[in-house]
Write a structure and sequence with these properties.
single chain; TIM Barrel; eight-stranded parallel beta sheet; 11 helices
Length: 297
């Protein structure tokens, strides 16, 4: 793996070759597991970062906090990382700083959304949107920041939540405006059927040479049905994120184990579900008694 090529350029090459699966990683250890499992990219979810810090996903945490997780995941995995930047942590000046900070943290790209603060999960109702002009300005500032800090390699993805607020056609028109403002990638949030995913991607085909990369969100327990990666490929999507899946799996196992510990007074019955000491050491590439080298990527 080249350590000189920008991770955004690496992710572009992957997406041009095939549809990329990007599981969510909420810390460096999970990021290592994603890489060890053979995935080509990682995703950092604002929702996972937030609930991991014990707060809801409404935009309460700082840019510095988010950027520190992006850095952990990028260093831990060595993979291109797409990261959630919520609404950009402020107005245009903060959007610019966010792009630069995420780029310095080793990210491949980020997405900003067209909700107003305080934002909420894209699969909840009751969202409110920025005006098209406001979001276009933010995308323009983000794109210029990418050009300034990475010669445009750092990917700018614009997420629109308009489908659940203003309707499907409005979401398409917003997405086209965001592409014209400089977005490299579009993330249509809250779509509810394979037909909607196909129609949305088809509408982006109308942009011809300006067609953006397309990102699909395959989150569980939301408005989107479970769709497999092969189907997303035929629907016209370049990357699929699984934002909170690893956290949901981990917390499901943790809560069941804690319940058993409380009731039984021992975790002996859970040993078969645990990562062993040797497996953990293998994941972090550590041999006791041998000096451990910090990853160079």
């Amino acid at each position: 793996m080249s350590t000189n090529e920008h991770p955004g350029a690496r992710l572009r090459a992957l997406m041009q070759h095939d549809t990329v699966m990007a599981p969510g990683a909420f810390n460096a250890l999970v990021a290592r597991a994603v890489a060890q499992a053979g995935f080509g990219a990682c995703y950092v979810s604002g929702g996972a970062i937030s609930v991991g810090a014990g707060v809801p996903d409404v935009g309460l945490l700082t840019l510095d906090f988010f950027a520190s997780i992006v850095r952990q995941v990028a260093q831990g995995s060595g993979l291109p990382v797409i990261a959630d930047a919520d609404t950009g942590f402020g107005e245009e000046e903060m959007v610019r700083r966010t792009v630069i900070e995420y780029n310095h943290a080793g990210g491949a790209g980020l997405h900003i959304e067209d909700q107003v603060f305080p934002k909420r999960c894209g699969h909840l109702d009751g969202k409110s949107l920025q005006s098209v002009d406001q979001m276009v300005s933010r995308v323009q500032w983000a794109r210029k920041a990418s050009e300034d800090c990475s010669s445009g390699d750092f990917l700018i993805c614009a997420r629109t939540d308009a489908k659940g607020v203003e309707g499907f056609d409005s979401a398409i028109e917003r997405a086209k405006a965001y592409v014209n403002a400089g977005a490299h990638m579009i993330f249509p949030e809250g779509l509810t059927s394979e037909d909607e995913f196909e129609r949305f991607a088809g509408a982006m085909d109308e942009l011809g040479d300006k067609r953006p990369f397309m990102l699909a969100n395959m989150t569980e327990f939301g408005k989107t049905p479970m769709i497999g990666i092969d189907r997303f490929k035929t629907l016209g999507y370049n990357i699929v994120i699984y934002p909170v899946s690893t956290m949901r799996l981990a917390m499901g196992a943790i809560t069941r184990a804690l319940s058993e510990l409380k009731s039984e007074g021992t975790l002996e019955g859970q040993l078969g579900n645990m990562q062993t000491r040797d497996e953990l050491y293998d994941l972090v590439e550590y041999t006791p008694g041998t000096p451990w080298e910090f990853p160079a990527h």
